[in-house]
Design goal:
Blueprint (H helix, E strand, L loop, with lengths): L2 H17 L12 H8 L6 E5 L5 H8 L3 E6 L2 H9 L7 E5 L15 E7 L8 H14 E12 L10 H16 L5 E8 L2 E8 L9 H10 L2 E11 L3 E10 L8
Parallel strand pairs: 1-2, 1-4, 2-3, 4-5
Antiparallel strand pairs: 5-9, 6-7, 8-9
The structure holds S-adenosylmethionine.
S-adenosylmethionine binds next to strand 2.
Length: about 250
């Protein structure tokens, strides 16, 4: 599928969900590891979030006294995130493509922390992934932190109990039936009860093993601090990596 068609699928998904009367597509609590690391930043430190979706992490980080810039390519979800964010929180929401942020955020080294919650794995194209990680590195100050929480390849999930074994098996069946693009029925919660909708599926998605994510980040110039398996059957098995941007690097270097 052409790249633009793929990107349009996100916008359509969010629109279908909101038009059907749902308040959120993916209501969730930020991971405790993210909050723990963010708490250690100085008050007022600048944080950038990539692929922020409905803004759950952005709001939680701003509530800690951080200044947050949150980017997503879907105008519908950025409008939703803005509408859900109190004026007392310092969050600047931007519509943009994280693979090229030069025009939106020209100043390199401006952020103490970058956050990616399920953004990187949505990119199937190797060049997009490299361009995105290069932008993340450019925007962080030397020594800045990159918190990444992305979908783990099912082959690398180590189920902790029978529920997780079942969840992995179900996800395998789903994945086997959806190899990119198309649509899927979903039940969503609205103010008037549950509703069935049909959602376009995003065409590309490249979940990696923990080792593969680590290698991608190292290639992009990050130094890995913590790397572990996390998440849950409900919100997806995840690789969680906290890395450091050791040296500043300009775009194209
Ligand atoms: C799986 S959702 C996760 C959203 C949010 N972080 C969360 O956890 O609820 C992935 C998000 O990344 C956004 N996205 C995907 N590719 C992007 C790109 N190239 N630039 C900006 N946002 C992108 C999508 O629009 C979507 O909102």
């Amino acid at each position: 599928m052409p790249r633009d068609a793929g990107l349009a699928a996100y916008e359509e998904r969010y629109r279908v969900v909101y038009d059907a009367g749902a308040r959120f597509w993916n209501e969730h609590q930020p991971h405790p590891l993210l909050i723990d690391r963010a708490r250690r930043l100085p008050a007022g430190a600048a944080v950038v979030e990539f692929g922020c979706g409905e803004g759950f992490e952005a709001r939680a980080l701003a509530a800690l006294g951080l200044r947050v810039t949150a980017i997503d390519l879907s105008p519908a979800v950025i409008a939703k995130a803005r509408a859900e964010t109190s004026a007392s929180l310092d969050v600047s929401y931007l519509v943009g493509d994280v693979t090229d942020l030069e025009a939106l955020l020209p100043q390199g080294g401006a952020f103490a922390m970058g956050v990616d919650v399920h953004c990187l794995h949505m990119m199937s194209d190797a060049q997009d992934r490299r361009a995105y990680l290069s932008e993340a590195k450019r925007l962080l100050r030397p020594g800045g932190l990159f918190y990444m929480q992305d979908m783990l390849s099912l082959d690398d999930v180590i189920p902790a109990n029978d529920d997780e074994v079942r969840a992995v098996a179900e996800m395998r069946v789903f994945k086997a039936g959806h190899t990119g693009g198309g649509s899927t029925p979903r039940t969503i919660r609205t103010a008037n009860g549950e509703k069935e909708v049909v959602l376009p599926l995003c065409p590309g998605c490249r979940a990696q093993s923990l080792a593969q994510y680590k290698s991608e980040l190292e290639t992009a110039g990050f130094t890995i601090g913590l790397a572990e398996r996390g998440g849950s059957p409900d919100n997806g098995f995840a690789a969680i990596i906290i890395a450091t941007a050791e040296g500043s690097r300009m775009k194209g270097e």
